[in-house]
């Protein structure tokens, strides 16, 4: 059997090439496609975010490796198909970073605020899209993004060409309007229309987050984590009384929720 390289990156790529070898490789790896691997790539990205959220550097090291392996996997499949290889991927992202940071790699001054650098970044990206003839303003916002994240990106893109509420008050008024429409739909309309109205309300909530400069995905992850902490507190307190949520009233659990909140959970 061929000896693997000792350099970590070369070793990883050699492992992937061997796994994909049509004769001596792993049958599962050989039969995979871009489409079949894509869900794993998304999952690994979320697991990276989860390790960061929990502050676990040991887990983050492993999850970053898993995510890197996904890039190597896709690049190997592309090389197998004669499209490009990992070096092309690395070269392309390197070129992009240099082009998008003229204040670091070029002659521009780097004496800019973070907001100005973001604005410059968006200008460069807009020029790249125009060079690729991307079509409409929203055409290249990825369909595979989580819905909440995609809503925010669609709104940001539309806002750059002037399609946006000028102030937060207008957004809040729209939320109230959508909430009323949802309440009315619940009483009179079929389930698909209720789902549509729910989507409209969530879309405007994402817009409010953008106006408040809050990342909605991060905010919702925080709310999820808070819910888990407080419900765990409810379970612990009920267990100490020899009971559990299924055997308790809503009033009991609500009181324990307030107690968890008072304790800062």
From TrEMBL:
Top-rank taxon: Bacteria
Keywords for the protein's UniProt record, in alphabetical order: Hydrolase
Protein name (record): Nucleoside triphosphate pyrophosphohydrolase
Enzyme Commission designation: 3.6.1.8
Family annotation (Pfam families): MazG
Family, as annotated: Belongs to the nucleoside triphosphate pyrophosphohydrolase family.
Signal sequence, renumbered to the chain: none
Organism: Gymnodinialimonas ceratoperidinii
Gene name per UniProt: mazG
Transmembrane spans: none
Taxonomy of the source species: Bacteria, Pseudomonadati, Pseudomonadota, Alphaproteobacteria, Rhodobacterales
Class in the EC hierarchy, top level: hydrolase
Keyword S-adenosyl-L-methionine attributed: no
A Gene Ontology biological process term: response to stress
Catalytic activity: ATP + H2O = AMP + diphosphate + H(+)
Molecular-function GO term, any one: ATP diphosphatase activity
Segments forming domain NTP pyrophosphohydrolase MazG-like: 32-105, 169-230
């Amino acid at each position: 059997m061929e000896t693997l390289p000792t350099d970590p990156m070369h070793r990883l790529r050699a492992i992937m090439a061997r796994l994909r070898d049509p004769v001596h490789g792993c049958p599962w790896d050989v039969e995979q496609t871009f489409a079949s691997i894509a869900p794993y790539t998304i999952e690994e990205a979320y697991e990276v975010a989860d390790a960061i959220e929990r502050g676990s550097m040991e887990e983050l090291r492993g999850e970053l490796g898993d995510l890197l392996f996904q890039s190597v996997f896709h690049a190997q499949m592309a090389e197998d198909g004669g499209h490009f290889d990992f070096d092309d991927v690395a070269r392309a992202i390197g070129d992009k970073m240099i082009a998008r940071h003229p204040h670091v790699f070029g002659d521009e001054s780097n004496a800019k605020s973070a907001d100005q650098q973001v604005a410059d970044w968006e200008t460069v990206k807009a020029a790249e899209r125009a060079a690729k003839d991307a079509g409409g303003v929203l055409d290249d916002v990825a369909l595979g993004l989580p819905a909440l994240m995609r809503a925010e990106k669609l709104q940001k893109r539309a806002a750059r060409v002037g399609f946006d509420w000028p102030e937060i008050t207008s957004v809040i008024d729209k939320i109230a309007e959508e909430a009323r429409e949802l309440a009315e739909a619940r009483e009179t309309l079929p389930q698909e229309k209720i789902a549509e109205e729910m989507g409209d309300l969530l879309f405007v909530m994402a817009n409010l987050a953008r106006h408040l400069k809050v990342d909605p995905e991060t905010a919702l992850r925080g709310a999820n984590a808070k819910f888990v902490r407080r419900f765990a507190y409810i379970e612990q307190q009920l267990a100490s009384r020899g009971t559990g949520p299924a055997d308790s009233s809503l009033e009991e659990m609500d009181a324990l929720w307030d107690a968890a909140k008072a304790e800062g959970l």
